[in-house]
Design goal:
Blueprint (H helix, E strand, L loop, with lengths): L11 H5 L3 H5 L4 E5 L6 H11 L5 E5 L6 H6 L11 H6 L5 E5 L16 E6 L4 H5 L2 E4 L8 E4 L5 E4 L11 H11 L38 H4 L15
Parallel strand pairs: 1-2, 3-4, 4-5
Antiparallel strand pairs: 6-7
C-alpha cells in the first residue's frame, strides 16, 4: 500500500477526502468496496469518484464466487417473494428449499417450527441439521458450468472428476421437476430489484475465512487478523 487511511465504521467516505489529491492525480482508478459501503453510500461513493475528474471503475466485492451470477438471474431483494429475514420470521411458512446456503448459522431459527426443510449441500451445516431431507450436492470440481465474477465476466468451469452419489444442483432441480411433472425455465429472467435495499446480508467474511469450504479449515481459522473482530461482531 502506498498510503493507508484508518477510518471508523460509517466514516469511510469522509476519510477518502484525505486521498483526494493523490487520487485525482492518477490517470485512471479502480475502486473496490465491500459491505461497509451500502445503500445510499454506494451513490455517495460514485459521486466522489465522479468528482475526481479521472476515469473510474467500481468493483463491488461479493461473498461468493457466483454471487454476481445469481444477481444476473434476478436473485435480488426486490424480486418477487420473501427475503431471508421474512422467510425466517414467517410463522406460516410451509416449506423451505435451501441451495448451498446456511441461513440458520449463528443461532438463527425458523419461526415456523413445522416447516418442511430441504437442503442441497456438501456439508452438514446448521441448516442441514435442521432439514427433513438432505440432497448431497456436487462441488464445483465435480460439475461443469459457469460462474460470473464480480466484474461481470462469465468464466467456464469444467468437471475435474466424476463421482457417484452427489449431483449438480441443476440436475437435482431437473429430477424433482420431472417427479412433480413441472417444466423448468430455459433462460434467465431479467434481473430486477434494488441492490441497495436492506434485503442483502453479508456473509461477514474476513480475509482468511471467505468461502463455504474455508470454515472447515483449522489452519485458516487459526490465523490472527487485524483488525480481527471488525467483521465478526459475534456473527460466524
Amino acid at each position: 500500500a502506498k498510503r493507508v487511511v484508518t477510518t471508523a465504521a460509517g466514516e469511510e467516505l469522509r476519510s477518502l477526502e484525505q486521498l483526494r489529491a493523490d487520487l485525482a492525480a492518477e490517470s485512471e482508478l479502480v475502486i473496490l468496496f465491500g459491505d461497509a459501503v451500502k445503500g445510499s453510500g454506494v451513490s455517495d461513493l460514485v459521486a466522489f469518484g465522479d468528482s475526481l475528474g479521472t476515469p473510474v471503475k467500481y468493483v463491488c466485492l461479493l461473498d461468493y464466487s457466483n454471487s454476481r451470477g445469481a444477481q444476473d438471474w434476478g436473485l435480488l431483494p426486490g424480486a418477487d417473494g420473501m427475503n431471508l429475514d421474512q422467510m425466517l420470521a414467517a410463522e406460516d411458512l410451509d416449506a423451505l428449499w435451501v441451495i448451498g446456503a446456511n441461513p440458520l448459522k449463528s443461532g438463527r431459527t425458523l419461526a415456523a417450527a413445522s416447516a418442511f426443510v430441504v437442503v442441497n449441500d456438501l456439508f452438514l451445516t446448521e441448516t442441514a441439521r435442521r432439514a427433513d431431507v438432505i440432497l448431497p450436492a456436487a462441488s464445483q470440481y465435480e460439475k461443469s458450468g459457469t460462474v460470473t465474477n464480480v466484474c461481470g465476466e462469465v468464466q467456464r468451469l469444467k468437471r475435474g472428476i466424476e463421482k457417484s452419489g452427489a449431483k449438480a444442483d441443476l440436475e437435482i432441480f431437473g429430477m424433482v421437476a420431472r417427479a412433480m411433472r413441472l417444466e423448468l425455465a430455459e433462460s434467465a429472467p431479467p434481473a430486477v430489484g434494488d441492490v441497495t435495499s436492506d434485503g442483502i446480508h453479508s456473509a461477514c467474511d474476513t480475509l482468511y475465512t471467505s468461502g463455504t469450504t474455508g470454515r472447515y479449515s483449522k489452519m485458516l481459522n487459526a490465523v490472527k487478523e487485524g483488525p480481527g473482530e471488525l467483521y465478526k461482531g459475534g456473527r460466524a
